[in-house]
């Protein structure tokens, strides 16, 4: 579907502007990093990575390692025993599957509706466009978490408590997604391209399908990543509404509860629950960093 | 060949398309938000004026402001509000300062630039549950690594969960650790937008690097700093998962003496443990008002600073 749109002919792509000659007086901006800068940054990164590394250490040792003084600092060889124990103790496989279903559905829906609304806000003229856009962005300020009691009452009315629908449906759209796609499409889709499509007789949905969606792919990927991670990590609402039909975060919190926590088991679960997100982050971290920084400039 | 009639019909349809379709495209967002975002919040207000017991579905009675009157006299509520503000300040202020410093470090010509940025962001992509569980182990009284490290410099084992300040510090650390890298990237983006000639001029005037940082970088970032403060306000005042999971029993009292129960956690306790939905809704609305007040103060601050710059 996305291949229907030919790439724009090369001559419409603006040539890169010549770099402005920078006055150099022995220094340039940004400054070159000193050894101290590198040292400090490496310390920060080490602090960021340490808790996850620690999970790996604990989950690959026997149970007595958590109480060892001084603590163990090198991973051992018992990772797969501990993983097997997690799957024996709780229905972790079901929880992982639930989380994939929930996060996958929410991601597809958010990307689709955000691109559609972003297209309308960025490229179509209609009465009330500005105020409606401001209203859409303002909704992101609403503290949703405070509405959970009536939301729970609603879900009970619908008979959705304990069902994944109760988590998926309220997550189908996000204000952030609409804002993000509006910003991106405003820049990425030239009006001339849409005009050409109109002359060829395309309706607005035709323009959306053949012009906007292909152009939106890079931003849609970033938005999809954000949405997936957020849905995957969501805890409070699933805890309240899903009960025994747990997502991975709820299952993890159940593993950790109790007066004597088996930390070897719990941290193995932590590692398992984080792994899918970690893989996504390793592969596409550059885009995620870029997405946050682009959003910030306009924010 | 297209007849006149067909042309006219097509023009009419196309006008309907251009006039009407934009509303169709934005409608799903507004409808779903109204149903699952706005309506529950408004309905919370209605519920808060009732004696509403879940176990007793359907039999709720209008009690007016009784829930709010009870709330204002509830020592547990004031305790929770104090804890919330304390954790919010303890997590936000050091966090934003550290983020500023990290952004400054990242704002150099660096090798492995992307890897360093990703490393800084890593905490933010891990879940609250995972992060809190790992840190709760690290902050453990008997075998936690934090106490082991403190012991190495002669500070005796701290029972982090037991004390008010110690638990607030630990929870604030967890919150700050998870968000500092995210805010650093936001500051970095704004830093990169500062015109270089400002620094070059300052350098010619003999300003030191730290002078340049405090006199140029920080003032230029003020709108962004206020923005991140507002966002941290809205998020920070709603904190509940961290204190819930920080108690190993995961009871929503926030420790045996409620020493780290936040307002949102108090709402959860009243709603889903005591099943007092009316009272919990009153807590929700009161917290909402607190958040709005803080957000407005911050907004006015933002506007004033923006005016100053004009």
TrEMBL record, chain A:
<keyword id="KW-0472">Membrane</keyword>
<dbReference type="InterPro" id="IPR035906">
    <property type="entry name" value="MetI-like_sf"/>
</dbReference>
<feature type="region of interest" description="Disordered">
    <location>
        <begin position="1"/>
        <end position="25"/>
    </location>
</feature>
<feature type="compositionally biased region" description="Pro residues">
    <location>
        <begin position="1"/>
        <end position="19"/>
    </location>
</feature>
<dbReference type="GO" id="GO:0005886">
    <property type="term" value="C:plasma membrane"/>
</dbReference>
<keyword id="KW-1133">Transmembrane helix</keyword>
<dbReference type="InterPro" id="IPR000515">
    <property type="entry name" value="MetI-like"/>
</dbReference>
<keyword id="KW-1003">Cell membrane</keyword>
<comment type="similarity">
    <text>Belongs to the binding-protein-dependent transport system permease family.</text>
</comment>
<feature type="transmembrane region" description="Helical">
    <location>
        <begin position="100"/>
        <end position="121"/>
    </location>
</feature>
<protein>
    <submittedName>
        <fullName>Sugar ABC transporter permease</fullName>
    </submittedName>
</protein>
<feature type="transmembrane region" description="Helical">
    <location>
        <begin position="263"/>
        <end position="284"/>
    </location>
</feature>
<feature type="transmembrane region" description="Helical">
    <location>
        <begin position="167"/>
        <end position="186"/>
    </location>
</feature>
<keyword id="KW-0812">Transmembrane</keyword>
<keyword id="KW-0813">Transport</keyword>
<feature type="domain" description="ABC transmembrane type-1">
    <location>
        <begin position="96"/>
        <end position="284"/>
    </location>
</feature>
<dbReference type="GO" id="GO:0055085">
    <property type="term" value="P:transmembrane transport"/>
</dbReference>
<feature type="transmembrane region" description="Helical">
    <location>
        <begin position="33"/>
        <end position="54"/>
    </location>
</feature>
<feature type="transmembrane region" description="Helical">
    <location>
        <begin position="133"/>
        <end position="155"/>
    </location>
</feature>
<dbReference type="Pfam" id="PF00528">
    <property type="entry name" value="BPD_transp_1"/>
</dbReference>
<feature type="transmembrane region" description="Helical">
    <location>
        <begin position="207"/>
        <end position="232"/>
    </location>
</feature>
From TrEMBL, chain B:
<feature type="transmembrane region" description="Helical">
    <location>
        <begin position="277"/>
        <end position="301"/>
    </location>
</feature>
<dbReference type="InterPro" id="IPR051393">
    <property type="entry name" value="ABC_transporter_permease"/>
</dbReference>
<feature type="transmembrane region" description="Helical">
    <location>
        <begin position="169"/>
        <end position="189"/>
    </location>
</feature>
<feature type="transmembrane region" description="Helical">
    <location>
        <begin position="220"/>
        <end position="241"/>
    </location>
</feature>
<dbReference type="InterPro" id="IPR000515">
    <property type="entry name" value="MetI-like"/>
</dbReference>
<dbReference type="InterPro" id="IPR035906">
    <property type="entry name" value="MetI-like_sf"/>
</dbReference>
<dbReference type="GO" id="GO:0055085">
    <property type="term" value="P:transmembrane transport"/>
</dbReference>
<keyword id="KW-1003">Cell membrane</keyword>
<feature type="transmembrane region" description="Helical">
    <location>
        <begin position="118"/>
        <end position="140"/>
    </location>
</feature>
<keyword id="KW-0472">Membrane</keyword>
<keyword id="KW-0812">Transmembrane</keyword>
<keyword id="KW-1133">Transmembrane helix</keyword>
<dbReference type="GO" id="GO:0005886">
    <property type="term" value="C:plasma membrane"/>
</dbReference>
<feature type="transmembrane region" description="Helical">
    <location>
        <begin position="23"/>
        <end position="46"/>
    </location>
</feature>
<protein>
    <submittedName>
        <fullName>ABC transporter permease</fullName>
    </submittedName>
</protein>
<keyword id="KW-0813">Transport</keyword>
<feature type="transmembrane region" description="Helical">
    <location>
        <begin position="85"/>
        <end position="106"/>
    </location>
</feature>
<comment type="similarity">
    <text>Belongs to the binding-protein-dependent transport system permease family.</text>
</comment>
<dbReference type="Pfam" id="PF00528">
    <property type="entry name" value="BPD_transp_1"/>
</dbReference>
<feature type="domain" description="ABC transmembrane type-1">
    <location>
        <begin position="81"/>
        <end position="298"/>
    </location>
</feature>
